[in-house]
Amino acid sequence: MLSRGYGGRVRGPHRVNPGSDRFDMVGDEPLTLAHLAPTWIARDRQLGAVAAAEAGAGVIVMDDGFQNPHLAKTASVLVVDAKQGFGNGRVIPAGPLREPVAEGVARADAVVVIGTPADTEALLTLWPTLRDRPVVQAEMRPLPTGLPLAGEPVVAFAGIGRPEKFFATLAGMGAQLLVREAFPDHHRYSESILWRLRRTAERHGAMLVTTEKDAVRLPDRHRRQVLVVQIALELADWSALDQVLNRLC
Predict the structure, then answer these.
(1) Which of 118, 187, 200, 241 could bond to 183 as cystine, CB 3.0-4.6 Å?
(2) Per the confidence metrics, is the pTM higher than 0.85?
(3) Nearest to 79, CA basis, from 60, 57, 59, 62
(4) How far is CA 168 from CA 10, 158, 235, in A?
(5) Is the pLDDT assigned to residue 248 strictly greater than 80?
C-alpha cells in the first residue's frame, strides 16, 4: 500500500510499523492499513513507489491516488458512496469535486459503488455516465467483534468521513444506540472528551464502541476500554474487478 500519510508529520518515504508508529507520525489510515499489508507513506508518491519497489513490492495499491498524475497506473478504480454521490456535481470551490465526473470516469477501468442495490441504481440513474465503465455494487459489512451487540446498550462515537454510516451499521447489528457522538474526520481526541465518553458509557451501563480508524487515535489507556467494530467491503460480483486485476498478472 502507498499513502500520502494525511494527518501525520513524517514526510517519508517511510514503511509504516504498526507496532511502534503513532497516528500523529504516519496518519490514522496508513496505520490501519499497515495491519493488513505492507504500507509506505510518502508526500512524494514517486519516491514512495520507488521505496516500496526496492523493498520487494510487486504490486503497489495507492490509497486515494486516483487523481495523482505523477505515477503511471496499470489500473484505476473509481469508488463512490451511493448516498453521498458527487454532491452538487461541481468542482472546488463551487462543489466537492476535484475534477468533473465525466473526466474521472473516462480514466477509470471500473467503478465500485458502495451502497444498497436500490441506492446504487439511484446513483446510476442520476449519473448515467458511470455506466460507461464496469460497475460493481458493494456494501460495508461488520466483521465479528467477539461480543454480540444485538440488544446491547451502546455509546458510539466516530470521527470519520460519514459517522452516520457507522451508527447505521451498529443499528443493523441490533445494538441499542443510546448515545451517538459524531466528530470531524481524523479528529484528535482530547483527554477530556475521552473521559467524558467513558463516564457516559458507565452511567448508562453501556459498551463504548468506535471504528477501527478511530481506535488507532486513542491512547492505550482508553483504547482498552473501547470495543472496536471492524468493517469489510463485500462485493456483490467480483467478475468486473477480476477482469481489471487479471491485467496485473
Answers:
(1) 187
(2) yes
(3) 62
(4) 34, 12, 19
(5) no
